[in-house]
Amino acid sequence: MKITRIFNQLDGKSEFAELDIALKDGGPIGFLSERFPAGEMIFRETPSDYDFKWHPAPQRQLLFIIKGRCEFMVSSGETRQFGAGDVLLLEDIEGEGHCSKALFNEVRHSIFVTLPDRVVLG
Hints:
Helix content is about 0%, strand content about 50%.
């Protein structure tokens, strides 16, 4: 299963990468990853005019987009759009960070799950 990662380079600049979460056959219920410890879960509603300029993530966290669409921009100026069903790993907790904004005048519903530093995905 592939998810998008936003992380810092050593110079503090953020960038995108793809992360492959390994799955194993779980029998009739489908394929499963290993278990990963998690911290807290935060539900969020982002307004349709949301446009947050440069900011780092407050902690390592997974972002699950439930409803709405948004755009993220990293230090290089590269942008990517995400919507319902997408998962991002936000690890740019220092440095320049990223920009994020709502698209198409849509309210976004999302869930953040914080991750302990020791957790390595992929």
